[in-house]
Amino acid sequence: MTLLTAVAADGFFAAVAAMGFAVISNPPKKVLFTAGALAAVGHMVRFALLREDVGIASASLCAALLISLCSMPCARRWHIPAEMFVFPALLPMIPGMFAYKTILAIMQFLGAAAISLRQELLVDIVYNGLTAFFIMCALAIGAVLPLLAFHRESSLGRGIRKLWRRESGKG
Amino acid sequence: MAEVNDFLRLFCAALLGLGAQTARVDRNAARIAGAFGCAVDLAVFPKHLMLSVTSLDGRERRTSVGSIDAGVPDFRKVAGLNALGWSIVDECLSLEEARRRFHAILCGQSYHPACVRLMAACANAAFCRLFEGDATAMALVFAATLGAFYLRQLLVRWRVDGKIVFFCCAFSASMLAAPGVLFHWGSTPQTALATSVLFLIPGIPLINAMLDIMDGHVLMGFSRMVQTSILIVCIALGLALTMALLGVNAL
To answer: Where do the H-state alpha helices sit in chain B?
Structure first.
């Protein structure tokens, strides 16, 4: 499978996952489909970065930043909070498996007798726990940073809108 | 003033129960109170909220406490209530009209349960593929999610406690995916077992918790984080029981 096909397949399955998990939270249809498209874009970027040996937390941060930035024009157009698009799009990147693997490793650690097994499990607990924590932090920072920077009341947001108006006035 | 206080209390409790960020609830409350010529101070706790509505000259003040009925996150209702907040300001709605629209939003439509079940099953199968699962593993996860999600809908309808629902669903989903491990179906039966429970992970409350902490609503953020962590422990327990029955040590 070529890189392009692998990236496209990753985007497609991420979109299906995002829309399917999002539907549990009853989003409006336009939010559902937009979130699917955003999830595909974000997950493809994360997939490509992971293949380039970028860390999973950094790759998730980049993906979340991109999703959040892309959600802003949609939010402005349909007068729906940007979080409504961002949250479902982030769902395929939630570190659920790392989180429950941490709990499983803790339970196995409590029942393990051999020291070597305990050491292995301790490494699993720390690795899975920290990975889950840092991915969650990366997703939250990535989701919230563009919303804060380009918020309607922020100086950056006001500056960009002023520039936009001036450009459209010239046109 | 008392009516504004009552409306705001119901509005904020509904938004919080439907899974809105605390900062958004705060902003909406201030916006609506401003439209009715008042100011509002809001204190949010995990299960209750307290709000104080003050007249702009500061002479009159009404304080009340309400309960938050936490339910499943609902984007449609959160978006509707947020839009209502703006409509009250932009269209100068009366309190009566705002109340009518508020109740209409809360009675709003939702997707058919069978459609939700089918989409969640497709999503979990796609998720299995993202974790390098093969076609057999995807089919197993699809069937397991379909069955376990039906059980979840039944248990929620019977008002069973959330933690028991998560444990039972994790156990049933992993047991339904277990034949792959038992009979060595496909090349990635372990992936099927590991991903079969992922549809239960409470992603939206987890993101909300992180954003609340970053917004400075640390109390609410930690409360939401602890609640979701308990649910993840329930999922892990359900999966651990299946693993113990199957004799699987690691995923």
So the answer is: 2-17, 22-35, 75-90, 95-106, 113-130, 135-157, 162-177, 179-182, 189-195, 203-215, 218-246
